[in-house]
Amino acid sequence: MLEDSQCAADAAVNAANKVINQDKVHFIIGEVCSGASIPVSEIANREKVIQITPASTNPSVTVDASGKTKPYIFRTVFIDSYQGRVAANFAFTDLKAKKVFFLFDQGNDYSSGLTATFKAEFQKLGGKVAGEEGYTKTDSDFSAILAKVKASGAEAVYLPDYYNIAKVKDALAKIDYKAVCGHIVYDAQHNPQLGAIVVSIKNGKATFLSHVTI
To answer: Which residues lie closer than 8 Å to 105 by C-beta, 6 or more apart?
Structure first.
């Protein structure tokens, strides 16, 4: 059975209810996005249907609000706390960045989760937060945010989000900065849209961290 959950909570819930209640499946493979996997996991766990996600890294996918493990829910990747720590150490140690500006999708569990774990580890290492700004997936004008990035004195920008927000990366590529970009793995890295960010006016490169490279 195939259902398109659209990387969206509502669509994912509808898809999960259909395949469980109507199609009577015993296993679910997916979702990719944490924001969609989390509500699906609540349904699947309650109905004792095994769910395996290949890419959702938010801890809430497999652990409920009380901190208890959801026995029917599994993932084949690590979680935000690991990925965020590795990215923070890379920025601080390898890129020698001491001030980082954070850009994240405030409605995206993956993006906000990685931002929180990176920031905590980066500050623990002695790094400073140059600033942080949230945006939404429907935003198209990033001029005000980018002005803040440019004025912040940041030595790196951390942008953990999916490939389909290439418009953010296009805008960032116009700034004089070193970019540390956390990215979901799946097939996102291979999308042609990503070519737009592999530009940095001053440094000539960007760095992608993902499930593949970590």
So the answer is: 111, 112, 134, 135, 136, 137, 161, 165
The model's pLDDT over 132-156, given as tens digits with 9 standing for 90+, comes to: 999 888 887 888 888 888 888 888 8
For residue 51, give the DSSP letter: E
- CA atoms of 122 and 116, how far apart (whole Å): 10
| Tens digit of each residue's pLDDT (9 = 90 or more) over 164-200 | 565 666 666 665 444 444 332 223 344 544 443 433 3
Domain 80-209 has CATH 3.40.390.10: no
Q: Domain coordinates of the chain in residue numbers? A: 9-75, 80-209
How much is the pTM?
A: 0.75
